[in-house]
Design a protein that fits this description.
Blueprint: E1 3-7, H1 12-21, E2 32-37, H2 39-48, E3 56-60, H3 76-81, E4 84-88, E5 91-97, E6 100-106, E7 109-114, E8 120-126, E9 129-137, E10 139-143, H4 151-154, E11 166-172, E12 183-186, E13 190-196, E14 203-207, E15 210-212, E16 215-222, E17 228-232, H5 238-245
Parallel strand pairs: 1-2, 2-3, 3-17
Antiparallel strand pairs: 4-17, 5-6, 5-16, 7-10, 7-14, 8-9, 8-13, 10-11, 11-12, 13-16, 14-15
Amino acid sequence: MKLHFTATPEASDALAAMRARHDDVGPEAADVIVALGGDGFMLQTLHTFLDKGKPIYGMNLGSVGFLMNEYREEELQERLAVAERAVVHPLRMRAHGRNGMVERLAFNEVSLLRETRQAAKLRVIVDERPRIAELICDGILVATPAGSTAYNLSAHGPILPIDAALLALTPISAFRPRRWRGALLPHRARVRFEVLESTKRPVSAVADDFEIRDVAMVDVAEDRSIAMTMLYDAGHNLDERILSEQFTD
């Protein structure tokens, strides 16, 4: 397979080592993009090569590396030949703020977060039907199956199988309604968050690593017209990792 390598600055030595072993034909000619870094860099790589439609094989040189494969310099072509595929679809966020509407994609989650010491007040609307008139909280997020083991899991949201046609709607430190723990939504659901008392209780919206401050309303929906493929070593695919995550401490 023809390869193109990309890496974080911290992985520059590994990048040089891999290029010494394999030709780097550039992103246009490559069959596979090989990303050297951590989970955050995998997300960046998905965004960077969105218009190329090339599968991405990540090798972990970060901290957690949940979305990555083990880093090894040898036998890369052999690993790629038997790699298993995981297809992911992003969320499309439309955030309405003081300067108009901003649109971004998120492969992990879209989150709303309070900006000050005061809790956020949000109205939660699903498919044009109000579900929570006033949620008082630190924030809330919508997570994809791929992102369900990230921020969503830290906020005590559910882990979703990678091929589940579901989204996780998870509150962050909800104060009222106190007992609400979130919801599982069909992947086709359209979610709207309206920020109440936005001047007094400002809220930011984050799509993966992109943040917009002082939003008034945020719309979130999965975009099935976009599909990106991640490659995993045989026997260590994303399905298995997500399943294993539910049986660990």
